[in-house]
Amino acid sequence: VLCGVAPDHPEVKNVINTFTQTARSERCAYYGNVTVGRDVTVAELRQAYHAVVLSYGAEDNRVLGIPGENLSGVYSAREFVGWYNGLPENRDLKPDLSCETALVLGHGNVALDIARILLSPLGLLRKTDITDGSLAALACSKVKRVWLVGRRGPLQVAFTIKELREMINLPGARPVLNPADFTGLENAIKDAPRPRKRLTELMIKTALEKPGEKTQAAAPREWGLKFQRSPQEVLPTADGRRARGVRMALTRLEGSGDSAKAIPTGDVEELECGLVLSSIGYRSLPLDPAVPFDTQRGVVPNSSGRVAGGPGRLYCSGWVKRGPTGVIITTMNDSFDTAQSVLEDLQAGVLDLSASREGFGAPPNRGQREGVRPVSFSDWEKIDAAEVARGKAAGKPREKIVDPQEMLRLIGH
Amino acid sequence: IFTNLSYSSADQVTVHFINRDGERLTATAKEGESLLEVVVNQNLAIDGFGACEGTLACSTCHLIFEKDAFQKLNAISDEELDMLDLAYGLTETSRLGCQVCVKKSMDGLTVRVPMDVSDIRRQLEVEKQSKQ
């Protein structure tokens, strides 16, 4: 929650309080800074515990797989979000924000988050828990135009209405939606479920609004949605080193609704830009040879959270179970579903409680294994308190510590 | 009990919550409190209710009203509709508890806590067990 939810969405992070209550329970123990695969294996965990639940999410991203993807100026949404959210592994990203136009490939909430952070007035960002380093970089940013580009049409957008409305209302940024993209859609959504209907109606309304109001027309920045465009190649500058644009294949849609497919028409278009953010989805990674993994779908195969084809007493929940989509409540409900499976198995004797298992203290004692320094929940609360104290001085909810070594020093490790 | 001493009984409004397992939870609310505040203040045993603490950033305080009661509620804002759109088991008489404030005229109100995916599963499991 702390490093995935956008810095300017503090209310969404309130759920941390609910999670903290659970974490503080006597019946719950937290061991951070322990890496499965390096410090402990799944086999050892299954030996030490009656049930093992994999909830490790999606730490990687899908790749475009197109030429020019590795040019300077091209980033995955995941690393860009990690950068402004203070994820230690992305702290040295140093994204180049010296161009005017940015392309975000993808039509999900993460794509909108990125557009919003790139175009938000600094005054608003300054009061959030965005990292100091990112704030400084954004203060020097020349980006004034962001296009969100998707392969399919308006009826297939994956972002939700709250985030779209927020973007439309963003001070100093004018929405640019092409009315031609929405012809005939009013009719198509007549009988659609309410969420899709309202979302589409909002896009249509925004597309048809004349920028007559003084504030809108004079907005220094702009953003827009482009549809039915599939990236073919990131085009390089003359010296061959940086991105200068993206060549897009224009597509047509086959089928409708969620299952509509984008088929290239043969026509192409070049979009000029100096910054490309690929927001086409997060991706889980396989954890351990002992755990089955569906490389194609990027999930651990399962049935209601019970790992399929695995060694038993193994479960999964969240993004590693169903794929990297949905908002917090979707993932929470999914976790309740896995918990239900664990409880059913407990009742049915599947977990074999007659076998006594030692948990964290099991030999070899993980706390004493060389080089392993587990971090407890109260250790985290010390780090948490330090971040909040540092933020206070700057009028921010917290100032995130981005160096893991600094965190460990703070708790005396 | 001590917190109620300073209020006359005229300010008390009785609200019933039908929990996901069918149990009826009865609470005494103060006029002006939101239904989320009632659940929190009275410590009602409704799992995962109000995760975002009333800031319109989730849909976990989703409640289902009877038609008559629903029609008498305060107008629903776009922002509330936006979050309700993401709620599981959305109905025509659904509202978010954090946006509905208790009025004296609501005395005796009954609302239902909607079931989520794991509740439906649990129900099916119980039915299966009872058939065996």
UniProtKB/TrEMBL annotation, chain A:
It comes from the Eukaryota. GO terms for cellular component: mitochondrion. SUPFAM superfamilies: FAD/NAD(P)-binding domain, Nucleotide-binding domain. It catalyses: 2 reduced [adrenodoxin] + NADP(+) + H(+) = 2 oxidized [adrenodoxin] + NADPH. InterPro entries: FAD/NAD-bd_sf (IPR036188), Ferredox_Rdtase (IPR055275), Ferredox_Rdtase_adrenod (IPR021163). FAD binds at residues 36, 319, 326-328. GO terms for biological process: cholesterol metabolic process. Keywords: Electron transport, FAD, Flavoprotein, Mitochondrion, NADP, Oxidoreductase, Transit peptide, Transport. The keyword Flavoprotein applies. This is NADPH:adrenodoxin oxidoreductase, mitochondrial. Its cofactor is FAD. The keyword Signal does not apply. Belongs to the ferredoxin--NADP reductase type 1 family. It is found in: Mitochondrion. PANTHER family: GLUTAMATE SYNTHASE 1 [NADH], CHLOROPLASTIC-LIKE. Pathway: Steroid metabolism; cholesterol metabolism. NADP(+) binds at residues 107-110, 151-152, 163, 326. Its main location: mitochondrion.
TrEMBL record, chain B:
Residues 13-117 form the 2Fe-2S ferredoxin-type domain. Keywords: 2Fe-2S, Electron transport, Iron, Iron-sulfur, Metal-binding, Mitochondrion, Transport. It comes from the Eukaryota. InterPro entries: 2Fe-2S_ferredoxin-like_sf, 2Fe-2S_ferredoxin-type, Adrenodoxin-like, Adrenodoxin_Fe-S_BS, Beta-grasp_dom_sf. It is found in: Mitochondrion matrix. Gene3D superfamilies: 3.10.20.30. One of its GO terms (biological process) is P450-containing electron transport chain. GO terms for cellular component: mitochondrial matrix. PROSITE patterns: 2FE2S_FER_2, ADX. Its cofactor is [2Fe-2S] cluster. GO terms for molecular function: 2 iron, 2 sulfur cluster binding; electron transfer activity; metal ion binding. Its main location: mitochondrion. Belongs to the adrenodoxin/putidaredoxin family. This is 2Fe-2S ferredoxin-type domain-containing protein. It comes from Opisthocomus hoazin (Hoatzin).
